[in-house]
Amino acid sequence: MRRATRGAACAAALLLQGLTAFAQPSSPPPAAPDPFWNVPDLGSLPDDEHGRLVRRGRDLITATYAHLGPNVPDPAKRYAGNNLACSNCHLDAGAKKFGNPLWGLKDRFPQYDAEAGRSISLEQRVNACMTRSMNGRPLPADAPEMRAMLAYIDFLSEGVKPGEILTGYGSGPLAELDRPADPARGAAVYRRTCAVCHGTDGAGLRRSLPATDLGYMVPPLWGPDSFNDGAGMNRLTTIAGFVHANMPNGTSYLFPRLSPEEAWDVAAFVVSQPRPRKADLDRDFPDLLEKPADTPYGPYADGFPREQHVYGPFGPIRAAIARLKAERSGAAPEGAPKAGQ
Ligand code: HEC
Ligand code: HEC
């Protein structure tokens, strides 16, 4: 609750809830009351050194292709391997609930990262997206572009108290199916709902502006200029939740346009398409029991085939992993008698 009085914020939240009820009488209300979300106002920053750094950081996030992309004039600055912008996935420049917000992160790093098997800094987390989502190479921690993006991300955390947990992180929760998600059904959803913007070939739509503009009107979903196979967006739960909460573009998680089934199936279709490959993915998750059930690449410790790790259902995999973890720690699962008793 920042830069708005509590009263005004509550009135706005009530109004929003009222509109929700009015516009979609059949849609269920959010499970718990959703605290009002207020993003700090970048436009009101003074035009001083800090204000300019934060603005530069936002530009780098909304037009990454123009500053760090594979076609920028200075070869030394070609850190990203594709022409995406961070904000193609971190929607509204990282300020959208369930649009992978970059909000309130300042005090959550360094944090343990299972993929790396160690604690990582916020710079290293940005570089995980640089090398996977952007299919590129890491930016040095002291590169001016890294400092600017971090200044912007810190700015988005302004007013968040240490330890405060905000709602809306990630790409949106979605009830899981008890069957594998189906790429063939998803292809039909794609043709019906996505192709008009992302194209039948998934290649997106370049801007029709002069050639100096290197970006997309609509980003590609697969093919050589997309995120690589090690990206978070290539995991079914992430992309299905993101699509359900945000697509077609402009959708709010309060008014999803796809049913959960459609979201899972269309996500299954998208992750089945060709995309760049990242080297050495088998080195991710040095502790295989910490590997999320929907990681689409091996090795796996749970005995389930790759196909089920890609398309689900994930419940049985999680249960097997929990059993293996309990065996490893020597502890019997809760409620069960201990060995030898
Ligand atoms: C109205 C046009 C439109 C429609 C329809 C649409 N999208 Fe998008 N999509 C976009 C735009 C634009 C973005 C980038 C948003 C931004 O940069 O703010 C995007 C971003 C994405 C992203 C993340 C970025 C990336 O490159 O991977 C995914 C995944 C995605 N869309 C999937 C889908 C799926 C699946 C559907 C169909 C259910 C769909 N979209 C329908 C316009 C659309
Ligand atoms: C293709 C989509 C995509 C693009 C492009 C992308 N990211 Fe991400 N990013 C994600 C997803 C999805 C996550 C959530 C974690 C996961 O599942 O891997 C994430 C997580 C993060 C996080 C950690 C957030 C948290 O809550 O802990 C940061 C920081 C981040 N990205 C920064 C960036 C920056 C900076 C760029 C551009 C240089 C970028 N990302 C480009 C998809 C993307």
Blueprint of the fold:
Elements lengths: L5 H18 L25 H14 L1 H5 L22 H4 L16 E3 L4 E3 L1 H10 L12 H13 L26 H16 L6 E2 L9 E3 L17 H11 L13 H12 L34 H6 L3 H14 L13
Antiparallel strand pairs: 1-2, 3-4
Helix pairs in contact: 2-6, 7-9, 8-9
The structure holds heme C (2 copies).
Kindly list the characteristics that best describe this protein:
341 residues, mainly alpha, Cytochrome Bc1 Complex, Chain D, domain 2, 3 domains, two-stranded antiparallel sheet, 36% helix, disordered N terminus, disordered C terminus, binds heme C, Cyt_c-like_dom
How would you describe what is shown here?
The chain is mainly alpha-helical and 341 residues long. It folds into three domains: 37-156, Cytochrome Bc1 Complex, Chain D, domain 2 (Orthogonal Bundle); 183-271, Cytochrome c-like domain (Cytochrome Bc1 Complex, Chain D, domain 2); 281-328, no CATH class. Helix content is 36%, strand content 3%. The chain has eleven helices and four strands. The chain has helices at residues 6-23, 49-62, 64-68, 91-94, 122-131, 144-156, 183-198, 236-246, 260-271, 306-311, 315-328; strands spanning 111-113, 118-120, 205-206, 216-218. The strands form two sheets. Strands 1-2 form a two-stranded antiparallel ribbon. It has a two-stranded antiparallel sheet with strand order 3-4. Helix 2 (49-62) packs across helix 6, helix 7 crosses helix 9 (260-271) and helix 8 (236-246) packs across helix 9 (260-271). The protein is globular. The chain starts with 5 loop residues before the first helix and ends in a 13-residue tail after the last helix. 35% of the residues are buried. The site of one heme C (HEC) has 24 residues, from helix 7, helix 8 and helix 9. Residues 84, 87-89, 91, 193-194, 196-198, 218-221, 233, 239, 242-243, 247-249, 258, 266, 270 line the site of one heme C (HEC).
